Amino acid sequence: MGCNRWRNQLAARFEAAVIDPETRRQLVDIKFCYSRSLDWAKQAFHDLNLLSVRPNAATAIAMDMRDPLTSITRDVAKLPFFDGRVVASRQMKQNDTGICTLSVLRTSVVCFSEGIGGLQYGNKPVELNASRIPVVQKAAVEYFASLTDKLGPTMERRNDTVTASPAVMSALGALGHKASTIADANARQVEIGLALQGLDRVDWSRGQKWDGIAGKLRPDGVFSTAGGAKDSGHACYSALADVNSPHYATIRT
User: What is the pTM of this model?
Assistant: First the structure.
């Protein structure tokens, strides 16, 4: 049974390579279980499909070796500002000393690569043309290094500011999207500078200014960023990037 399944999958890989030669570059996870009985194989099939516990997104993403943007996210996470402060858990606790979760950082990197429309992917893999990968990788490391040089202190104060919240992080990633398309290093640096220049007057403090943009001001006066990137990412991006948005002036001093 196992051999037949393996042969079918191998044949499918050859067929896929004929349809799309880029699939030959993909890494494929293979597990060999040998010296086991048929009864063991049946029980393993049952246990894996009925009793398995689905891991949280951050843990699953950390194990993904195929998706190029996940790999690029790991490179970004090694930057001095993020190193050791990207949390591999579902969400941050109030007293955590980290900056953000791995899934939040990945969404920001996806939006850097794909624009704010990258929010549609969530935690799913993103098809990225192999020719783009080297440029996106270099550009992402450069952009997020510059971004954290500029906004690092406010990101660290995540209980007082919105800067490291999921929605704002996705918008900040998308803000540098144009840089992800520029192969020339010098031109890319100019674009990164222009993208970040527009953030100079933004007030990142949690509160009424960000109500309806990065979160909600509750009746008790507490500002909450609950809802995530998909709910508020577009509004945050509009407020940061679109001078014609009614929110553009609202969040600036």
Answer: 0.79
